[in-house]
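>> Question from a student workshop board

For tomorrow's exercise we were told to take the sequence and the ligand below, predict the bound structure, and bring the output to class. My setup keeps failing. Could a helper post the expected result so I can at least see what it should look like? The ligand is flavin-adenine dinucleotide.
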Amino acid sequence: MKSAIIMHVDSPLFFQLAGELNLFLQHCPDLKQAELWLFYYQDKPSALPAINLDIGRIELIKANSRYLPEAFLQQLQQLQQQRNVELLLFNGDNLGGELATRLAYRLQGSSCLSVEKVALNDRQLTVDKAAYGNNLNAIFTLKNAPYCLSIARRAARPANAITPPATWFETSTENNTDTGWIENVTLTVQPAQDQSKNADVVLAVGRGISHSLVSKLPDIAKTLGAYLGGSRPVALNGWVDINSMIGVSGARLAPKVCLVAGASGSAAFTAGICDSQFIIAINNDKNARIFTLADVAIVDDLEPVLLELDRLIKSDQLIKSE
Ligand SMILES: Cc1cc2nc3c(=O)[nH]c(=O)nc-3n(C[C@H](O)[C@H](O)[C@H](O)COP(=O)(O)OP(=O)(O)OC[C@H]3O[C@@H](n4cnc5c(N)ncnc54)[C@H](O)[C@@H]3O)c2cc1C
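>> Workshop helper replied:
Here is what the output should look like for this input. Compare the format with yours to find the bug.
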C-alpha cells in the first residue's frame, strides 16, 4: 500500500515527534516503505530526523503559513491525488489529529486517531488503539481508502539528526489558500517548554515521602542531576510542582535512569515511566507493584536511602574537586 508520512519542519516538536514515529514503526512490520512529505514555511530544513523506515522519496512542500490547517489541507489534497497515496500517517500532536480527520473527510476516506499499531492484511487495514484511558484496546478495520491516521503519542527520545539529501522533490501545489471560515490568525511563540522530556535522570516520588523530606527534594534532585517529578497525589498535594505530575494524567518520560521513591506502582503512574531504560525503586513494602518493573529493588524506608545517596554523591563530588 503506497504510504506517506506527513510532518512539519517548523514544529518545535519536529525531532521529538519523529522519535515517537520511530517507536510506532517498531510495532508496524507491515509498513516497509513510505514517502516523507515535509511542510516548511520559510527555510528548507538544514537537518532531518532519522526515520526507521525505507523513505523512498522526500517531498518538500512550501506552505504559505507556519500554522494554518486550511492551507495544509488544500496542498495535501492535491498531493494525495498526484501521488496516489492510500495511507497517510500524521503525527500525534493536535495538528496531526486535525489534519487526519479533516483530510479523510475531504477525500471521502477513513480516519482514526492515536493509533498504536497498523496491520495490512490482504489490502485491508487494521489499526489498534487504546480506549478509555488504556482500559480497553480497540481494533478497527477501516473501510474506505485513503486512510488518514494520527499516531499515538508515546514517551520517546527525539530522533537523531541526519544531513538532508542533496536533492529534494519539490511539490508544485497551489497555496493561494482561501482561509474559509478563518478571519485572521495571530501566532505567538511561547517561552521554551520544560525540559522533562529530555531528562536523562528522573527522580519520581510517590505518597511514601515524609513531610520532612518534601523541602529537601529539590536539593536531592539537583545532587542526582535529576528532573524531579511526582505521582498524582504528590503533585496534587503541592509537594512537587503540579506540572511535573507523572503518569497518564501528566508527563510520560523515557529517561536513562528513573529513581522511583515511595510510589506503589499503579498503572496510571507507571504509564509515565515504563519506557525508562533503567528503573530503581525504593519502597518499604516488599510486595509493592513497582518492583515488578524495577531493575533494582530497594526494600527500605526511602528517607535514609535518599539522604545517604545525596550525602555520598556530594562527598564524592567534593573529593573530585580537591
Ligand atoms: C483517571 C485517573 C487518572 C490518574 N492519573 C494518574 C497519574 O497520571 N499519575 C499518578 O501517579 N496517578 C494517577 N492516578 C492515581 C493512581 O491510580 C494512584 O492512586 C496513584 O498513582 C498512587 O500514587 P502513589 O504511588 O504515590 O501513592 P500510593 O499508592 O499511596 O503508594 C505509596 C507507596 O509508598 C510506599 N511507602 C510508604 N511509606 C514509605 C517509606 N517511608 N519508604 C518507602 N516507601 C514507602 C507504600 O508502600 C506505597 O507503596 C490516576 C487515577 C485515576 C482514577
